[in-house]
Amino acid sequence: MIKRLLSFFAVFVMAVAGSPAWADPHQDTITVFKNAGESGRFFKNAHGYAVFPTVGKGGIGIGGAYGKGRVYRQGAYIGDASMAQVTIGLQLGGQSYSQIVFFEDKRALDEFTSGNFEFGAEASAVAITAAAGAKANTGGNSAGMSGGENDAKTVGRYVKGMATFTVVKGGLMYEASIGGQKFSYRAR
Fold it and tell me: Which of 44, 122, 129, 154 minimizes the number of CB atoms within 10 Å of its CB?
C-alpha cells in the first residue's frame, strides 16, 4: 500500500513539475486572439504577426512597459522580439496584457524585422476587454466596445501595414498619456 502511494506521489510530482514544459504561452496567446472577435479574422490574410504573451506595464506620472515575444511569418516561427514602452502624462497603476501585431504584407514584416522598430505616439492598439473604451491620439479618435475576449467586437484595421490588438490580463491602470513602443528583433 505504501509502495503504491509513493509510486502515485512520484508520478504526480513529475506530472506537475513537467506540466509547464507542455504549456506554450505563445500558442495559448495566439489561440486567445484567434477566438477574440475581429482579431481572429486577421490570421487568415496577414503575412505575419508578432505575439507577446505578457507585457507588464506600470506608471506614476512616467510609465513604462516591457514584454518578450515571438515573430511568425505565415504561421512559421522566425525569431524573437522584445517590446519596451515609455509614456508620460497622467497615469497611475499597473497592469499586464497580451499583445499581437499583425503585418499586412511582406514589406511591413520586413520593416519590423529589420532590427529596431518603433511605433510612434500616433499608433494605437484595439483593446479586447469586457468594457467600453475610447482612445484619442495624434492619428485621430476611435472607440470600441466588447463583451469579453471570446466575443469581442472591435474596430481594428491596418495602419501603415500593421494592426495591433491587446487583451488585458490583470491589474488596474488609469492613464491619459502619450508615448511610443520600441521593438527589437532577433532572427531564430
Answer: 44
Over the stretch 125-143, which tens digit does the pLDDT of each residue have? 667 754 333 343 333 333 3
Residue 147 pLDDT greater than 50, yes or no: no
Apex CA 183: angle with CA 76 and CA 116, to 5°?
A: 95
Q: Max alpha carbon distance in the chain (Å)?
A: 70
At 180 the pLDDT is 85
Q: In this structure, what C-alpha cell is assigned to residue 167? A: 487583451
Amino acid at 127: A
Residue 176 CA to residue 138 CA, distance in Å, equals 13
Least confident range of 83-87, 139-143, 162-166: 139-143
Instruction: Give yes or no for a contact between 148 and 89, defined as CB atoms under 8 angstroms apart.
Output: no
Burial profile 129-161: b = 16 or more Cβ within 10 angstroms, e = fewer: beeeeeeeeeeeebebebeebeebebebebeeb
Count of residues making up the chain: 188
